[in-house]
Amino acid sequence: MRFEPVAPVRAYERVVEQIEQAVVSGALKPGERLPSERELMIQFGVGRSTIREALRVLQAAEMIRSRPGDPRGPEVLAASPAALHRSMHRLARAEHVGLAELLQFRMILDGSAHLLAAELRTEDDLTGLDTALESMREGVSRGYAEFSRADVAFHEVIARISRNPLLVVSEEVVRGVVLELIEDKLEHASNRTSLMRAWLAHHAEVLDAIRAADGDGAARLAKQALYDNYAEYVPAGQRPLLAPLLR
Amino acid sequence: MRFEPVAPVRAYERVVEQIEQAVVSGALKPGERLPSERELMIQFGVGRSTIREALRVLQAAEMIRSRPGDPRGPEVLAASPAALHRSMHRLARAEHVGLAELLQFRMILDGSAHLLAAELRTEDDLTGLDTALESMREGVSRGYAEFSRADVAFHEVIARISRNPLLVVSEEVVRGVVLELIEDKLEHASNRTSLMRAWLAHHAEVLDAIRAADGDGAARLAKQALYDNYAEYVPAGQRPLLAPLLR
DNA sequence: GTCGGTACACTGGTCTGACCAGTAGCCTGC
DNA sequence: GCAGGCTACTGGTCAGACCAGTGTACCGAC
């Protein structure tokens, strides 16, 4: 027989639990409203500060939002990757997760997304990709910011074609964190135009592979491109970690 | 010219900002203590409820922990994937993610983890895997619960060998959510003993591949095993989504 | 009728002050 | 030297108050 360590359960925690349960179980849908703090205080039988601390926790988790003065009460939000992004970012800054791990993870996700996209793409999807590629082509002459936006859009289309929201969200988060980590270094990159040209050519190649339903090819191209573009920012000692994924 | 939407900045948010800044900048290291709430109240020049809401947010982010009665004050915690785990869990349970997507994602993660493990494993890692496999073997006769625990441990060792915390955490979360979704169905599974035997044989095979540094083989085995074990719970119409990952 | 403005009831954000249970460390009394 | 209690603190909770801001219902002017 073994005993569990016991920690006192705070009142606000049980409030959080109940509301969270109502949200994840679907009893409270996004867009719906919670009762006002004073009403919750009565329903839960606790003081207002307890309710407020519970709402703060839920708000930090991006599950609800409350605006002063709104008589409809706090709003239940749709599940969003914002909280995931924040916690991953924090972890990345705490150096338990370095650029190498992030890049590794991104190669895995991006590669899989491309593989799935190549296998599952419909004609409409291909049209969407053509459009996205076209915006990138236009972006080249409009400056780096514009090009970068089009690039992100292209990746999002691919992720969407893979039809897996987890893939979409994780990739988005990891991409964001990677960019934040190296953005200062990117600022100083010279000859951006030729970089953009190369990047554009790569995307065209990927699109060809996807059009040909060549999943492995698309995946390999995607991973190789990530490696080529970002490996230089990874400490040399950790680069071998990335190599196994390139085959 | 474009304008940004403006949101009022709450007092507790600025308190959170400052403390968070102190933590990520390293001015406050893990294990160190924050002043007591009443002291913070003076330093920040705000009321105690404001301080408490700020601390709640930081506590929800797993950055600090406070225990009543401790005269040393709230403790600064080391960065941990716990917050990442929670937000990922919440997102994965959000309705638009079904078993098919989860399983797909798990095949991707597990496959990659096995591939990396096979390429990066040291002799010590192999010993650890041997031990884990041995516990599984013993678990067969000790009932399903025990076996299942040993199984999870085996997977955790593999994830750890892959040396990527993101992989470890994501896999853990996705595995947990998958199990939550089908646990009721698993309860009714008959002939558990033969299932455990088959599962055990599969792990032995995986271990062989890893020992042989055959990354692709290990990855393929892992993905196939997931498919074989869980595909029956996926709606028949969505099973083709999983197929591309098996090659 | 529509439109603009205004009053009101209510919201969340914040502060004050109070009480409680629990902790750590000191400080007795042996 | 040490066990036991004392004390000064901690965080958790509550009650009550005030404020600035919001949405709505009402109302008067057109």
Which secondary structure elements does this structure contain, and how are they paired or packed?
The structure is a homodimer of 247-residue chains.
Chain A: H1 11-24, H2 37-44, H3 48-60, E1 64-65, E2 75-76, H4 82-93, H5 99-120, H6 123-141, H7 144-161, H8 165-187, H9 192-211, H10 215-230
Antiparallel strand pairs in A: 1-2
Helix pairs in contact in A: 1-3, 2-3, 4-8, 5-7, 5-8, 5-9, 5-10, 6-7, 6-9, 9-10
The first copy, chain A, binds a DNA duplex (30 and 30 nucleotides) through helix 3.
Key attributes of the depicted protein:
homodimer; 247 residues; mainly alpha; two-stranded antiparallel sheet; elongated; DNA-binding
Notes on the structure:
The structure is a homodimer of 247-residue chains. Chain A has ten helices and two strands; from the N terminus they run H-H-H-E-E-H-H-H-H-H-H-H. In chain A, helix 6 packs antiparallel against helix 7 (144-161) and helix 6 (123-141) packs antiparallel against helix 9. With 247 residues, the first copy, chain A, is mainly alpha-helical. The termini of chain A are far apart. The first copy, chain A, has helices at residues 11-24, 37-44, 48-60, 82-93, 99-120, 123-141, 144-161, 165-187, 192-211, 215-230; strands spanning 64-65, 75-76. In chain A, strands 1-2 form a two-stranded antiparallel ribbon. Chain A binds a DNA duplex (30 and 30 nucleotides) through helix 3.
